[in-house]
Amino acid sequence: MVTDEYEDGEGELLRRLRQAIGPHAPVVVTLDLHANVTQAMADHASALIAFRTYPHIDQYERAWQGAELLERAMKGEVKPKTVIARRPTIYGLNHGRTQSGPMVEALSRADAFERKGEALVVSICAGFTRADIRDVGPTVTVTTDGTNPRGQAIAEQLMDFAWETREENSATLLPIPAVIELARKGKPGNKPLVVADYTDNPGGGGYGDATAFLKAMVEAKLPSVAFHALADPQAVQDGIKAGIGARTTLTLGGKTDPSMGGGPLTLEGEVTCLTNGKFIAYGPMGGGVARDYGPSMVFRVGGIDIIVITNNGQATDLGQLTSLGVDPTRYRTVAVKSMHHFRAAFEPIARAVVLVDTGALCSEIYTPELFTKVRRPIHPLDAVT
User: For residue 149, is the peptide bond before it cis, meaning its omega torsion is within 30 degrees of 0?
Assistant: First the structure.
């Protein structure tokens, strides 16, 4: 995390924890696969254990791994010590995707080191590329039993691989017109085409209210579309005032920054569902966890069921639709705002998955003006050998 006062929120939290409990008490931390890991985090934690799946569906397993290691450390069986390696790059390892590519190979190598007993834990983090902080980027941390020079060598070896493969990127973003044509080919009874608005991903910092793709679908009069979701508290309140079943005109989305993916849309339609936005997720990513998106609405415009929510959040669970009476398997096209996490729940129901570039905040363009605090030189802002 990044706070107003500290670029490295976890590092500062761990520093204060160490100050309180002393240097010898074991501290085991679980991390997101996209964590920007710092030297302070490695110094103050006994072990750092990162998720190994993207979408992140192994939180339960990593928690048990951490608990078991902590128990061994508390019994005095091991004395975990963690080291870290990084390279001068903002991104790498195919942005952490674990379906194919360098992240899969890196994790396979990490598994081998652990199986051989050369390390207690090898954690590979792809980094969160959209953070303007000094230590943005991929890292490898290795936890050994006590200080062991082999740990640093393993970390450096894996980071060499990350550096060599830094340009690999399996994501292909299509322009809006191309996706509209793909959606037209859907037939009744087919599995849906799942379209992810990659650049307006709330999980990446997107506003969740970009309208460019929705506008194109409305203008194309696409039939049988489920759209999740626009984050627009005011539109939801306007829908509540109109009431379920009412035909009304609402202004939706595009209110945070119209230059990022499209401005407000004024549309006539029907309010078909209103809820408090609360439900229990049931998918592979966070199944069993309570979700709360605040007052929520389905607004039907032609053949498009538009979900509008109060609390912003990316699509990761089918319950985000079914809790509003929208069964995504019954539509020809399902549009979601997400980069990759949607795949765990939505890819199994899809006839195909495509990513659309709507020109919103989370673009894949990395330019120097976006990074004022990052260490330099760094790839791709500078020529680094």
Answer: no
Query: Which residues does 139 contact at the CB level (< 8 Å), separation at least 6?
Result: 35, 36, 37, 84, 85, 86, 124, 125, 127, 159
Interatomic CA distance for residues 66 and 375, integer angstroms? 31
Predicted confidence (pLDDT) at residue 285 exceeds the cutoff of 90: yes
Place of tokens 């019954």: 330
Cα 309 from Cα 234, distance rounded (Å): 10
Q: Measured in whole angstroms, how far is the alpha carbon of residue 105 from the centre of its chain?
A: 21
pLDDT digits (tens, 9 = 90+) for 131-165: 999 999 999 999 999 988 899 999 999 999 999 99
Ramachandran angles phi, psi of 127, nearest 5°: 80, 160
Q: Which pLDDT band, with edges at 50, 70 and 90, does 232 fall under? A: very high
Q: How do residues 246-267 score in pLDDT, each as one tens digit?
A: 999 999 999 999 999 999 999 9
**Same structural domain, 113 and 230:** no
Could you give the percent of the chain with pLDDT greater than 70? 100
Closest to 12 (Cα-Cα) out of 3, 22, 21: 3
pLDDT at 238: 98
pTM of full prediction above 0.70: yes
Domain boundaries, position 327: 173-356
- Name the domain boundary from 123, 147, 164: 164
**Which of the 8 DSSP states describes residue 175?**
P
Query: Are 260 and 111 in the same domain?
Result: no
Instruction: Name the residue among 169, 139, 136, 172 with its Cα closest to residue 155.
Output: 139
C-alpha Rg value of the chain to the nearest Å: 23
Indicate the DSSP class of residue 46: S
User: DSSP states of 226-262 as a string?
Assistant: EEEEEE-HHHHHHHHHH-TT-EEEEEES--S-TTTT-
Domain check: are 177 and 160 in the same one? Answer: no
Q: How many domains does the chain have?
A: 2
